[in-house]
Amino acid sequence: MTVAIFLAILLTSVIIGIPIAFSLLMCGLGLMWYLDMFDPQIVAQSLINGADNFTLLAIPFFVFAGDVMNVGGMAKRLVDLPMKLVGHKAGGLGYVVIIAAVIMASLSGSPAADTAAIAAIMFPMMSSAGYPKEGSVGLIASGGIIAPIIPPSIPFIVIGVTASVSISQLFLAGIVPGVLMGVTLCLVWSFRARKFAAAKKATGAEIWASFKSSVWALMLPVIIIGGFKTGVFTPTEAGAIASVYALLVSIFVYRELTLKSIYRCLLNTVKTTAVIMLMVAAAQVSAYLMTVADLPLMVTELLKPMIGHPTLLMALILALLLVMGMVLDLIPIVLILVPVLMPLVQAAGINEIYFCVMFIICCAIGLITPPVGNVLNVVSSVTRVPFERSAAGILPYAGALVVLMFLMLIFPEIIIGPLEFMTGK
Known about the structure:
Structural class: mainly alpha
Order of helices and strands: HHHHHHHHHHHHHHHHHHHHHH
Largest sheet: none
Number of strands: 0
Radius of gyration: 22 Å
Strand content: under 5%
């Protein structure tokens, strides 16, 4: 009965258009009413506890760093380098999109911001070169969902806090899967690339000039990942370092960042952070009431027969996430399901880091699947290609990424092995 009430309130709220944060809050109030323990102090205290987490401070830092990179010239130079390296190959612009997406993912971790930057730069060039608009949008959007996987990743921060697992280990565990997603997109693109004309090959001097111009931007992921590997700084400190570094490079090296641009970046950071933090705080109200109502225990009992079959259990969870990803954004899915599923995952003996990485990969695919597909919506808006036509363009790429995800399901060592190597465990 408790599960039914929670789902009924959540689905009804979402269907009628209530924002996710308030839908989660209403779920908590509904459970409180059902349990006959209505107390405004519980709501207030849970909201405060949900937002009162030092690790979450990394979110505004990384959002701000990503915005500064996009308007301060770093993103433009990171696209120009792969353009000089592979732009001359048949279908080279598609490879540029994928390489730029991987590099951009290692800088900001925001799929919407990264995708919008790449779409604004690359789509006009692809259209001028005769690339089909639907396929171009599909490729750009599919490359954009690598951002939640490669560190620094805002979704990893949220799921790390929600599941109480090491965010530094999540960041390290996301490197190989993120790169494999890029390789998978390259393989799919290679079947279509030969029909497109090649651009003029860049000279050695042009490649060297582009590398020198972008080396300052390329140093940022090296600094961040190196800091995690050596334990020099935490994810929150990494966000602060990324923000300061992006500011210094954009102002004093590239000299493209103005006071007006900084103000816009700060304003966007405040708006984005407020949305995420309100959802996290509201989710804490629901999480507390779900715990009081023994909801996690009920779910565990319901799926108890699956505990002895971890792979089958993970497959069931991934199937559920693929369906939910069609109608909900990534962060809300994390906040709704992770508190419920973690006891079950622990009981089944599934590696918690592996589970969290797979969870985010699956939810990231949902960012490009209709009818919602937030990242696909962003690209559609930037390129002005109708959403229906854009949705047709993502099918081969989304399908290939689903296949890759299920390979990781069958062979967990793809994620766990590199993590153990990097952490020396």
